[in-house]
Specification:
The chain has 15 helices and 12 strands. By secondary structure, the chain is α/β, with parallel strands linked by helices. Strands 2-1-3-4 form a 4-stranded parallel sheet, sandwiched between helices. α1 crosses α2 (about 25-45) and α4 (about 70-80) runs parallel beside α5 (about 90-100). It starts with a helix and ends with a helix. It binds 1,3-dihydroxyacetonephosphate and iron/sulfur cluster.
């Protein structure tokens, strides 16, 4: 069979799914790359784990697992593949490596950072531990392995309250997201000592923006991520992790919804929920958007951009992530 025909047969069914969110003219560029990457995955026994903020051509075209950061960590541990290509940001690839240290973990763009992860260092955590001796440190997975290594346990937005309350203390240090810390404080009696980090995507939403959209769309359901500022969360109907939002839409099928989060999230959820109307004011995560199909192909073909973590750090950081995974999801 001719190559073009083969590409068409393989990718047309994918395009039928995503045609509402990817213009046909763009698909002509994506289809051959999707075909090549999927073929290479089989040849190399590789798996693509993608975060919910990845573009629809990655999320629906090449991902074997597409999920929130908690599920990505869990799936990274379970996989039998020899190579994991992490379509997401650096801390997610590091977490995958921590969970499955014998696998080759590749990140298509090593510059894919995160404003939360870069807001704090291992040294900062040591300083906090000196200031608050015997207070346990709960660290959001959006941090470097260095920071995780200084922590008692990790959490994600899908289990933060469950993790904090599992410790049985009246105080915890929670790092590094100040807005998530404020949100958590409204949900638990445990006293939260926080840090000053913010997510550059979620901090830009305002309550005014939400109110204006609600006025124009009186029946709209507004879902927020816990990295949003408190007044934005207060203006919403539901707050949860990216997979929590996805599940909310799937289970409730609202007529109209707005996901107050990264732009690709609405596109990806819309594909699976064709009867729901999405109102889409959103902010792009410049880090997530560094990951593209040509970069995925290049990194898998040449097995480049491998994540390596010094053993002295990974041993300690792994413990903090494993403790979190053992606790699981809140709902
Ligand atoms: P989730 O853990 O909800 O997938 O969020 C990760 C993230 O980076 C949100 O900005
Ligand atoms: Fe980090 Fe925010 Fe991007 Fe998530 S959306 S990866 S928290 S900068």
């Amino acid at each position: 069979m001719e190559l073009n025909e083969q590409i068409k047969i393989e990718t047309d069914p994918i395009y039928q799914k995503v045609s509402k969110v990817i213009p046909q003219i763009e698909w002509a560029f994506h289809a051959p790359l999707i075909h090549k990457i999927n073929k290479l995955k089989k040849e190399k026994n590789a798996v693509v784990l993608a975060h919910n903020y990845q573009t629809p051509e990655i999320f629906h075209g090449i991902a074997d697992i597409a999920a929130d950061s908690l599920a990505l960590a869990i799936e990274a541990e379970k996989t039998n593949a020899d190579i994991i290509v992490l379509c997401g940001v650096h801390f997610m690839a590091e977490t995958a490596k921590l969970m499955n240290p014998n696998k080759k973990v590749l990140l298509p763009d090593m510059g894919a950072g995160c404003s939360l992860a870069s807001s704090i260092t291992g040294k900062d955590v040591r300083m906090l531990k000196e200031k608050y001796p015997s207070v346990p440190v709960v660290t959001y997975v959006n941090t470097s392995a260095d920071v995780k290594a200084e922590s008692d346990i990790c959490c994600t937005s899908a289990n933060v309250i469950k993790v904090i309350e599992s410790l049985g203390t009246d105080k915890v240090i929670f790092l590094p997201d100040q807005y998530m810390a404020k949100y958590v404080q409204t949900k638990t009696k445990v006293q939260i000592i926080s840090w000053i980090g913010t997510c550059i995507v979620h901090e830009r939403f305002s309550a005014q923006e939400i109110d204006d959209i609600k006025k124009q769309n009186p029946e709209i359901v507004v879902l927020t991520h816990p990295e949003c500022p408190p007044e934005v969360i207060a203006a919403s109907d539901f707050t949860g992790s990216t997979s929590g939002m996805n599940k909310y839409v799937k289970d409730n099928q609202p007529n109209k919804v707005m996901l107050v989060t990264e732009c690709s999230m609405s596109d990806n959820v819309q594909v699976e929920n064709p009867n729901v109307q999405f109102i889409k004011p959103c902010n792009l995560c410049p880090h997530m958007k560094t990951i593209t199909l040509p970069k995925v192909l290049d990194c898998l073909e040449n097995e480049k951009n491998e994540i390596l973590i010094p053993e002295i750090i990974s041993r300690k950081a792994r413990k903090a992530v494993e403790r979190m995974v053992a606790i699981g999801r809140s709902h």
